[in-house]
Amino acid sequence: MRSMLNLQNLHATVGEGDEAKPIINGLSLEVPAGEIHAIMGPNGAGKSTLSYVLTGREGYEVTEGSATLEGEDLLSMEPEERAAKGLFLSFQYPIEIPGVPVMTFVRTAMNAQRKLRGEDEISAPEFIKKAREVGAALNIDAEMLKRPLNVGFSGGEKKRLEIFQMMMLEPRFAILDETDSGLDIDALKTVADGVNVLRRSDRGMLVITHYQRLLDYIRPDRVHVLAKGRIVASGGPDLALRLEKEGYDGVLGEPA
């Protein structure tokens, strides 16, 4: 089974100069094509930092190690190049963009990625047809898609919209950074349904979460525990259940 995401001895800091703080400390991880891996860990473990490092967020610097997507060096690419290669990040706290309708934002993003890949732009009729189909699957009505991006949206609406964007863009590899944060059970199921629809043999996903409850609906192939910036335990879905019962101290045998 070929590797989608491969991280080897990754080290990363946040901040600049003397203020730079090590967050990722020798993290190694491999996610094969067709698999969903979950990363769990206590606050401050480096979970969100990992997602920012992989997508190229400013202010985060890799100081050692490697990160490849389908064999290509992610760290040598600009953020927009990583997106064009098929890397997608669903934010824990989606941003608001006043004055920019959801449909305009998503179509612009799709066409920007297509241009970088040397593909033709998606036509308006094709885009609208796809948006309606995806919106219906996620219980997103047409009026919501006309509103400014995330402005005045509830937490659940913002998260559904993140999954809408993911389904429209059809990434090669998706990272979900605590997408379940603040969701009620109905919104949680909707988000999970969207993720499960995208599960394919040629796509990989990394689900970052604090809680087992999301993994009741998105059954991961592997679960990894992140503590102090590195993977300290790995296992099957049962590992998440153990964490729920015993906590991190119980599973790891010492405070994380």
UniProtKB/TrEMBL annotation:
SUPFAM superfamilies in alphabetical order: P-loop containing nucleoside triphosphate hydrolases
Pfam families listed in its UniProt record: ABC_tran (PF00005)
Xref: InterPro entries: AAA+_ATPase, ABC_transporter-like_ATP-bd, FeS-cluster_ATPase_SufC, P-loop_NTPase
Keywords per UniProt: ATP-binding, Nucleotide-binding
Source domain of life: Bacteria
Alphabetical list of SMART domains matching this protein: AAA
UniProt-recorded Gene Ontology molecular function terms: ATP binding
ABC transporter domain ranges (all copies): 5-253
NCBIfam families, sorted: sufC
Family affiliation: Belongs to the ABC transporter superfamily. Ycf16 family.
PANTHER family: ABC TRANSPORTER I FAMILY MEMBER 6, CHLOROPLASTIC
Protein name, per record: ABC transporter ATP-binding protein
Organism: Henriciella pelagia
Gene transcribed to yield this protein: sufC
